[in-house]
């Protein structure tokens, strides 16, 4: 999914605008943290998705008991479905986050 750059996160859309936007200006418009809206921010740290993330990680930790000792990059890999036993669960999590993001966008516009 993300490997194809087929998403609407600021990190990707900012570079395809008519007026190119520098990476540091592609911040998350949803949480106000000032962080760049990257895949890792979207899946691992944006507070907007905290409830979804907590439910997802609760299930992940039953399969991968060492999750808390993983590096940030390893955690991102798990969220992106690179742990074979969690592919479907990861896909559901990413999809739910995108749905919530779209709802937030549509209520603002």
TrEMBL record:
It comes from the Eukaryota. This is Uncharacterized protein.
């Amino acid at each position: 999914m993300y490997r194809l750059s087929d998403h609407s996160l600021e990190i990707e859309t900012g570079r395809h605008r008519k007026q190119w936007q520098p990476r540091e200006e592609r911040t998350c418009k949803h949480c106000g943290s000032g962080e760049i809206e990257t895949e890792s921010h979207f899946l691992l740290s944006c507070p907007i998705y905290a409830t979804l993330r907590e439910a997802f990680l609760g299930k992940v930790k039953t399969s991968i008991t060492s999750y808390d000792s993983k590096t940030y990059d390893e955690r991102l890999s798990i969220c992106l479905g690179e742990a074979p036993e969690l592919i479907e669960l990861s896909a559901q999590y990413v999809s739910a986050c995108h749905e919530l993001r779209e709802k937030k966008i549509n209520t603002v516009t």
